[in-house]
TrEMBL record, chains A, B:
It comes from Paracoccus sphaerophysae. Residues 452-565 form the STAS domain. PROSITE patterns: STAS. This is Sulfate:proton symporter. SUPFAM superfamilies: SpoIIaa-like. The keyword Transmembrane helix applies.
Length: 576, 576
């Protein structure tokens, strides 16, 4: 029991020197990557830069205790930072103490919800977010985030949480562009793109060992930070209008209290839920992918508790909502992290940075951080999901397209909500018109297949329908209509057999429909039979009067039904 | 084409003398039944009594032209009258011209929606109302309606649209009870109950011919109307505080214009939709039940057009929303109605009543009409649905219970909405945790069944799972977790076979999950195979890379998979 809630007891007992060495190497690489990212994501969330660093210390430690993934790297991530900005921006003014306090409240609510969902084993609610909706949402978020950073590249103020708002604000402010800021931003962005795509092959070409090439590539953002900071300091660019990070408190994470007014909590409940679910979904998919590579297991309910604990930690130590990041978890895994201890060492690295390195980022230009974010999030933008879903299924395409469009034009919460709603409605619509195949006997076998796809034998007096859907209220009447139409059109029909091999459930509405069908067929002098009814469905039907009143029989297999209902001569004719 | 939209062209050509005679008899019986009912339902809807008569003339004629049911009797019905009162009561004061005009608007909107749904073939939206939700809603409506009539029996004013409001209002007014009204009401109610349950057996016992006994029973309400009207007139009870119907205009239905202010239309849109859908569902179920008895066919989309035309007719001739009534359609059918012409003759009967009989109901006490309603609607109240659904499935029970409770306590619209929402959520929840059976070979056959229910042969190296649900976003991750758990727990497993006989669809999320499962199993060195994939599912999977990248094969039948994957010695051991 204790070990279920504290996975650290499991891996901690077997921790050895080899694991320690591997975890330490991974921690160094992730720390180098995380320092500029945590500053940048705090900027994206509208918070002071230190919030990003604080959000990467205690939350990581808590996840190391409660989480089940060996490789997941927890901390501030782009999409959740954007959602935080959108949610907190609606209840407080950016830059105020109220804003930071509301971000803590959001982390508290999100952490509380995650822990609660984990304890109540409600991880399945995340399933309401379909893959296409998540892909569409992340793509749209990437576009929103990249656009939101353009103001830092241009060095102009521009507010707005939707794409049209942001573009309009940027357009209005274009004349105020600070050229020096623009040069720094464009150079940094170009450099980071080059590092991302070309540095590693370039270094390998020079004969650099793979691990070193890898570390140097990951250190690319650090190089951009150092270079631009030095340039701003040496050339006195801050006096020329280049916005800089400025003074960052030099301390370990402080103990903070989230604001808890009922009004604020009420307004943040829904955003907190969305942040929790989206953060969880992002996290669990990367955790499971990485775990599978080593044949390890992730317990989704315990992951909820781990992420919840991390967010509660963020709420009380000056952070904001966190989750498992995709890119940094993959880096962690590739660098050889063996246990959550690697995360703990990363936290240690960040703590050292918080105490020792913060004065060094005083002259760091915001444009460089914006460049870091832009290069990071453009990797999230993948419009190919539109083409892929279009090719596979129009319903999935509609859900993606709606999610992207509404996220960009209305906002992140409306985007997710409309995607989920549309997915559910389209699913219900599809199951409301199930595929029903008339089947016949494949010659020389005991198999029954669709008469339109296969050469099969049939009998005009026996209509056999294979219903390819569970029967429930949304399609109950469909079956009534279908059978009535088929039987009134086919005058020779004396028996209707419903083949239930693909009927996984029959709800009360469908039961009443079956009773109505039975009654109507009896009025018409036609028998109603069932075949291949599954165990769980049969268990339930046995509790009702349907089987007693059935105007026909229940057959174990469709072949039994055929042998019993179709007279020998008809069968011989049909099978020829 | 024309004949699709005008079913009258179909049956009208073959109309003969025998059909005419049968239709005439049915029309007489239904007319006798309909006169007091239409006055009473208008009272329930909060409208002047003539509105009920008008709603029974032109709408019936229009349905006779456009409807497909041979037996459906259209007109004012109890549940729709209640819903009209609830909807119109929110936008206008009862007794004002605005109230009547809003009722016309409601009929117009409802008619327009029904016709539109019919033309667009959207009849399936009615399927979102599950049988239990409808049963619960009708039961709760019956209770609400009966309670709402108690004020007429007591002769007191009492407003309110929910059960607690009505009971509180009645309690406050109890002291003002008019004793004469109470005596009339109680006697009329008792008499009508006796007629309903005992008169027919009593008359048959006296040797009355069945048809006459039937007509006399149906005329029971007329007898109550005549007797109490005469009593009130002869004894001058109206001056003693007995509320009477009063002056009813003596005319054919007038030409009326529904109010059309944008505000009003906006407020009535949702109620109109609910009235349309509920009216359609009630109508179509009785129409189909009656049609089946004569092996006739109902076209649901054309029914929408027929009911829509009837409502449009009501909107322009002083009526209010109408639909096909259950009790009166059964009476119509039992009395021998052969074609919609029976309805036309009923309309003629009502038109004569409107012109000639209205002065005679001047002294008709409201208490008698209330008694008519109470006796009619108590037949709708059937709390056994709670017991039946409880026995069959907790999910259906929850939907019924929520519908009944919310309808009584909050209102009709909230009641239906919460029932639908809960049904959908519970369905999604159920399909999010599908039944997955591990199957093995039944000895001596080619059949594979659940290892927990049957004596079957298995092979420790081959895990065969039969997934009993379509794979879609709500359960995609469930399968990922399940397979990862089973494979990490069972170290000997070398092949996983997913038996797809009950998988009716695979959406894009599930496709990505299958790809993830495939990738993870490959990382673990385990093969992934599919068997018994249905045609429509296979068509879709062929458009993707899954089949090319599959870390295993697709087998036509599970038996093929077993033969290919399980080595001969293992099979022999397993089958022993």
């Amino acid at each position: 029991m204790l070990r279920r809630y504290l996975p650290i007891l499991d891996w901690g007992r077997r921790y050895d020197r080899r694991a320690l060495a591997n975890d330490l190497i991974a921690a160094v690489i992730v720390t180098i990557m995380l320092i500029p990212q945590s500053l940048a994501y705090a900027l994206l969330a509208g918070l002071p830069p230190e919030a990003g660093i604080y959000a990467s210390i205690v939350p990581i430690l808590l996840y190391a205790v409660f989480g089940t993934s060996r490789a997941l790297a927890v901390g501030p991530v782009a999409v959740v930072s954007l959602m935080t900005a959108a949610a907190v921006g609606q209840v407080a003014q950016q830059g105020t103490a109220g804003y930071a306090a509301a971000a803590l409240t959001l982390a508290l609510l999100s952490g509380g919800m995650l822990v609660l969902m984990g304890v109540l084993r409600l991880g399945f609610v995340a399933n309401f977010l379909s893959h296409p909706v998540i892909a569409g949402f992340i793509t749209a978020s990437g576009i929103l985030i990249a656009t939101s950073q353009l103001k830092h590249i241009l060095g102009v103020p521009a507010e707005g949480h939707t794409l049209p708002q942001m573009l309009a604000a940027l357009w209005m402010q274009l004349g105020q562009t600070n050229l020096i800021t623009l040069v720094i931003g464009v150079l940094a962005t170009g450099f980071l793109f080059w590092v991302r795509t070309n540095l590693k092959p370039f270094l390998r070409g020079l004969g650099t060992p793979p691990l070193l090439a890898d570390i140097l590539t990951k250190a690319g953002p650090v190089a951009a930070v150092v270079t631009t900071t030095l340039a701003v300091w040496a050339l006195g660019l801050a006096e020329r209008g280049v916005k800089i990070v400025g003074a960052v408190p030099q301390s370990l994470p402080p103990l903070t209290m989230p604001a808890l007014s009922p009004d604020l909590v009420g307004q943040l409940l829904l955003p907190a839920l969305l942040i929790s679910v989206i953060g969880f979904v992002e996290s669990i998919s990367v955790a499971q992918t990485l775990a599978a590579k080593k044949r390890q297991r992730i317990d989704p309910d315990q992951e909820l508790i781990g992420l919840g604990a991390a967010n509660l930690g963020a709420a009380f130590t000056g952070g904001y909502p966190v989750t498992g990041g995709f890119a940094r978890s993959v880096v962690n895994f590739d660098a050889g992290a063996e246990t959550p201890a690697a995360g703990a060492f990363t936290a240690l690295g960040l703590a050292i940075a918080a105490v020792a390195l913060t004065p060094l980022v005083y002259y760091l230009p915001n444009a460089t951080l914006a460049a870091t974010i832009i290069v990071a999030v453009l990797g999230l933008v993948d419009l190919s999901i539109l083409r892929k879903t279009w090719a596979y299924s129009r319903a999935d395409f509609a859900a993606v397209a709606a999610t992207i469009l509404v996220t960009l034009v209305v906002g992140v919460e409306a985007g997710v909500a409309s995607g989920v709603l549309l997915s559910v409605l389209l699913h219900l619509y599809k199951t409301s018109r199930p595929h029903v195949a008339e089947v016949g006997l494949v010659r020389g076998t005991q198999h029954f297949r669709n008469v339109n796809r296969h050469q099969v034998g049939t009998d005009p007096e026996v209509l056999t329908l294979r219903v390819d859907e569970s029967l429930y209220f949304v399609n109950a009447r469909f079956l009534e209509d279908l059978i009535q139409r088929r039987v009134t059109d086919g005058c020779a029909i004396r028996h209707v057999v419903l083949m239930f091999s693909a009927v996984n459930a029959v709800d009360y509405s469908a039961l009443e429909s079956l009773e109505a069908i039975n009654q109507r067929l009896r009025d018409m002098g036609v028998g109603l039979h069932l075949s291949e009814v599954k165990g769980p469905v049969m268990d339930r039907l046995r509790k009702t009067h349907l089987l007693d009143e059935l105007n026909g029989r229940v057959f174990l297999s469709q072949f039994d039904a055929w042998q019993a209902l179709s007279p020998q001569p008809a069968r011989q004719t049909a099978a020829q």
